[in-house]
Amino acid sequence: MVDVLSLGLDGVFEIRPPKFVDARGFFSETWNAAKLAKAGISVDFVQDNHSFSRMRGVMRGLHFQMPPFAQDKLVRVLRGSVFDVAVDIRRGSPTFGKWTAVTLSARQWNQILVPKGFAHGFVTLEPDTEVVYKVSAPYSAPHERSIRSDDPDIAIDWPVPATDMVLSPKDEAAPFLADLETGFNYR
Ligand SMILES: Cc1cn([C@H]2C[C@H](O)[C@@H](COP(=O)(O)OP(=O)(O)O[C@H]3O[C@@H](C)C(=O)[C@@H](O)[C@H]3O)O2)c(=O)[nH]c1=O
């Protein structure tokens, strides 16, 4: 049975799929809709993404897409490791602006489910890290938004010093959560 653990925020879970190891190698179901539905997780995924980061300290995020292109994301690591973060951006939520995190690694074979209404980001902990994730809505450039990963109102305790981080120009220029229309309202 697949282990599903709450990460303390509404709908954010760590998922640990079983891995069947034998003399040839291993086999693992990395997404099984019926099994996850039994754990209360129902998502229709429409796109798979794969990113490669050359060095430790690559910071991607915090990202989300506005409705109607909001995305649930199921994220895992094929090589290396990341510190992976979800932030509640639903205005009016009792946990608005709160973050939670899990270290994802190829060795641990764990995943994070980041639902709609949450921003997502990660920093790589090792060089040559590959991250793959499923998303429940297609990419839409006009709907994508970034929030500063060093937003002091969110105050994420990243395990890599800011001076060692590598950001895209888009993320360097990202606004603070307080200055952003997220498009998500609680209930
Ligand atoms: C996200 C995305 C990007 N692209 C293109 C746009 C751009 O030219 C290039 C690189 O895009 P980015 O710089 O946005 O890539 P990246 O910074 O890796 O963005 C990703 O970060 C993580 C944290 C997420 O949660 C993802 O949803 C996504 O936002 O890839 C697509 O074609 N499809 C996509 O779904």
From TrEMBL:
Name of the protein this chain belongs to: dTDP-4-dehydrorhamnose 3,5-epimerase
InterPro entries documented for this protein: RmlC-like, RmlC-like_jellyroll, RmlC_Cupin_sf
Keyword Coiled coil: no
GO cellular component: cytosol
Family annotation (NCBIfam families): rmlC
Residues flagged as site, Participates in a stacking interaction with the thymidine ring of dTDP-4-oxo-6-deoxyglucose: 139
Alphabetized CDD domains for the sequence: cupin_RmlC (cd00438)
Gene Ontology MF: a single term: dTDP-4-dehydrorhamnose 3,5-epimerase activity
Pathway where this protein functions: Carbohydrate biosynthesis; dTDP-L-rhamnose biosynthesis
Transmembrane spans: none
Keywords: Isomerase
Entry EC no(s): 5.1.3.13
Function: Catalyzes the epimerization of the C3' and C5'positions of dTDP-6-deoxy-D-xylo-4-hexulose, forming dTDP-6-deoxy-L-lyxo-4-hexulose.
